[in-house]
Amino acid sequence: MADQQKKPKKSKLKQSEKRAAYWLVAPSILLILIIAIYPVLQSFYFSLFDLRLNDPTKSSVHLNYSINIEEYLNYYPFLEGDLEGEMKQADGAVKNKLTDIHANLNQLDSKIREDAGDVYGKVNKMLNNFKTPPSDLSMVEITDETAEEFTGTIQHINEELKALEEKGSLSNPKELTGLASGMTGVIIEPNFIGFGHYANLLQNDRMWASLGNTFVFTIISVFFEFVLGLAVALLINKAFFGRGIIRATVLIPWAIPTAVSAMMWKFLYDGQNGIIAKLFHDIGLIDSMGSLLSTELGGMFAVILSDVWKTTPYIALLLLGGLQVIPKTLYEAASIDGAGKWKQFITITLPMLKLSILVALLFRTLDAFRVFDLIYVLTGGGPANATETISIYAYQVMFSQLQFGAGSAIAIIVFICVAIISMIFVKLLGSDLLPEGSKK
């Protein structure tokens, strides 16, 4: 009986502990959702539309046909008035044709009024009072039937007016045809294209080239940063006079802002006065001083060298933390057993440092894959896109070309690549992070 009473108490205690744990974790989860997950979802949503900030008809999301009432009312009343004036002066077949055009235009306006509702009157009143309507009021959704009829009718009116203009049947042809042509841009078509951007990007050679540059930069730079960072960490982990000053000095490159570091290296690589360029030329690494920033191979070498110089201290710092927790007694015991320095490094240092190595490589790989500021300032992605990474390409498409939808699709591709890299590293880390009792 006593055991049966203890079990419900333990069960209730576990449930209360679980609820408490959820409440403690909830703020962090909420923060992650707001800061990390929501922007990704928003970018994915935008990538499904043909958003172009340099095109007023595609500068925002449109799931249905819309009409710019403000722009429509800037053309329709004047076009109607000019048609009435032409009708009074014309006769015969020309008058009949103008009458038909006027009737079609009025019929079209009736449908626009019906779909727009009260907004039509409000915008018209504001314009008559020389006030600019707000953008959210000017855009009104209309039915597909109205949009198709509007497009067909305006196209027909334009053709009829141009035919009359060619025959010389109009007294004021330029104004009439100009107003009719202006009406063609008031209808905003839906810009939902689904996965169209992704399909285009998968066939885009520039996208694949930038992705290849990203992998080349990431693999080579992280490799050398790890090797040099491990060597530096092993060095500054030893006890010697002035160790504190050396440790602080080693971290200086990492402390310098990336943009400042890139500008500094740009001067060092300069084909006229660059010290590094002259040094490499003198020892025969490059054909001319200008090769570092003007050739494809030289450009990639330049950005990798700059990144290795700046980020090696970061790797060294992370690995130094792992070295600090390795018990010194292990090295003493190995030394007594006759193990040399290399044997100690292989059998003690690397196995004990495995978790720190994987964490350092994870952080640095993700950071290198998303590199932007260093390359943007140093080479701008050149020469001939030889150093253009996927982040640089996304920036060019989104902000230089103002194709916001396509840029968002590239950002999602970057996110997918980063997620895959993270999952690979987490898989490698998983066996070390799990408690001993949970490993199977």
TrEMBL record:
Keyword Cell membrane: yes
InterPro entries associated with the record: MetI-like, MetI-like_sf
PROSITE patterns the UniProt entry points to: ABC_TM1
Transmembrane domains' residue ranges: 21-41, 215-236, 248-268, 288-305, 312-330, 342-363, 407-430
Every ABC transmembrane type-1 domain range: 211-425
Keywords noted in UniProt: Cell membrane, Membrane, Transmembrane, Transmembrane helix, Transport
Annotated localization: Cell membrane
Record membrane topology: Multi-pass membrane protein
Similarity-based family: Belongs to the binding-protein-dependent transport system permease family.
PANTHER family tied to this protein: BLR7065 PROTEIN, INTEGRAL MEMBRANE SUGAR TRANSPORT PROTEIN
Protein name: ABC transmembrane type-1 domain-containing protein
Protein's organism: Virgibacillus siamensis
